[in-house]
Known about the structure:
By secondary structure, the chain is mainly α.
Amino acid sequence: MHILEPTEASMTEVLGWLSSFILVLTISQQVYKQWKSGHSEGVSIWLFLGQITASTGFTLYSILVHNWVFVVTNALMLVSAIVGGVIVIQHRRAKRGEAGRPMEARSARAVHA
Length: 113
């Protein structure tokens, strides 16, 4: 087993944390955009269910192998999957509720938005 020099180990940690930051920032921006837009058309709830399952498994695995970069990254990805899934569900409920309203009520809501 090759043991990294202290400087190499530090650079390895920096690379890991920087990559984690970029990934979490990218995903969180997408979830924010989805929330801000007010709709989730074309977004499958299965995407979030798969991500929740995978992120839970990867978080547990990362804890077991003591890799804290991946523990934090996967835990944050799990949170983003939960938030994204909740947003999709809320958007779909709102859309179903709006579909049952008379056209005048929908038009009035659009004018005030």
